[in-house]
Amino acid sequence: MSKRGVKAKASSDLVASNCPEKETMCDAEDALSTLRDDVIVDKVTSNISKYMDIKISEVIKPINELTEKFDNLIERMETVEQRVSDLEDVTATNEPRIAALETQLKKAMERLESFENQSRRQNVRIVGLKEGAEGRAPVDFLKKWIPEVLGLQQGAITVDRAHRTGPPMRLTGTEGPRAVLVRLHYYTDTQRILQAARAKGTVNTEAGKVSFYQDFSAEVARKRKESANKDLTHIAFLQETHLTDDEHRKYCREWVGQIFFSSYSTNKRGVITLIHKNLPFNVIATHKDNEGRYILVKGMLHGETVLL
After folding, report:
1. Is the pLDDT of residue 104 over 90?
2. Across 8-17, 135-144, 262-271, least confident range
3. At what angle do helices 187-200 and 138-150 cross, to 10 degrees?
4. Which one, of 291, 294, 290, lies nearest residue 273 by Cα?
5. Of 47 and 161, which is predicted with more confidence?
6. Virtual CA dihedral for 53, 56, 57, 59, nearest 10 degrees?
7. Which of 73, 146, 152, 160 has a 20 to 30 A CA-CA distance from 89?
8. CA proximity to 262, closest of 281, 236, 284, 243
9. Which of 237, 240, 250, 245 is nearest to 296 (CA)?
């Protein structure tokens, strides 16, 4: 074999002997690359997981807080519902008792009002008596004055006590005298006074008109005032009648009890107020315009002062 052949063979053997090492190195490089990739993937995955955990935690925290609040709210609502249910049960139990108590209270108030009105049966309320006319001895004054002004012919009356009602005029600033409350010893005297006042109609004194009324409780007075307001529908107010004084008298119809009018010479004005004959209206004072534009009438209706 020539030298060239020997060298070629030796080179071939050397290459053959080096191939396994090369393959081993390639395998090692592949394994290392795979390991490196796995490490990178694990690292990235870990970072992503941590990031996601942080973000999810940020989202879950307010959700947990809201959940806790809702749980508390539900618990409170259940408590409220239970309390409402308990109250409804108590109310259902108490309603009959309350209704019975209201009925008893109403009866008691009616009896109390009845007793109060009975205690006032011997009282007479005088309206329009000049302030101070009774002097320092109102009982002695009224024992003489009432029979004289009403013309009582059946003997003297017995007055237990008498006084003005309400505070003095200088404190209230009101106009007109305060009413006088008279307590009589006998109920028969009260009846005599009221009957004489009704029979006489208008009681005039030097200081003006005086009216006598029965004394009532506040509740009865309120009901009478309401009745008086309803009775105002029995009063007719007419304007611009264009009538003279004589012509106004034609309004004296069957149902008319009192007429108040004001007229003017030109027949272009005129007013008139008509009051039903069944209305217990007692005139205190009137004021009319000389030119027939208005007329004011002040009087007593069911114990109340009214201005028409």
Report:
1. yes
2. 8-17
3. 50
4. 294
5. 161
6. 170
7. 73
8. 243
9. 237
Token representation of residue 71: 């749980």
Rounded CA separation 156/172 (Å): 35
Q: What is the mean pLDDT of the chain?
A: 76
The pLDDT value given to residue 105: 92
Assess contact for 284 and 305: CB atoms under 8 A: yes
Residue 191 buriedness (CB in 10 A; 0-12 / 13-18 / 19+): middle
pLDDT, tens digit, 9 for 90 and up, residues 28-37: 777 777 777 7
Residue type, 270: G
Residue 3 is encoded by which pair of tokens?
A: 């030298």
Phi first, then psi: give them for residue 137, nearest 5 degrees. Answer: -125, 75
- On the question of pLDDT at 245 being above 80, the answer is no
**Is 274:252 a contact under the CB 8 Å cutoff?**
no
CA 129 distance to own-chain centroid: 38
Strand partners, 262: 271
pLDDT in tens, 190-234: 888 888 888 887 788 777 788 888 888 777 777 766 666 655 555
pLDDT for 249: 64
Contact call for residues 273 and 235 (beta carbons, < 8 A)? yes
Q: Does domain 123-215 have CATH number 3.30.70.1820?
A: yes
Which two structure tokens, joined as six digits, stand for 236? 């007719």
Q: How far apart (Å, rounded) are the C-alpha atoms in residues 237 and 251?
A: 12
135 C-beta neighbours (distance < 10 Å), count: 8
Q: Where exactly are the structural domains of the chain?
A: 44-117, 123-215, 225-307
Q: Quick one: tokens of 121? A: 């049966």
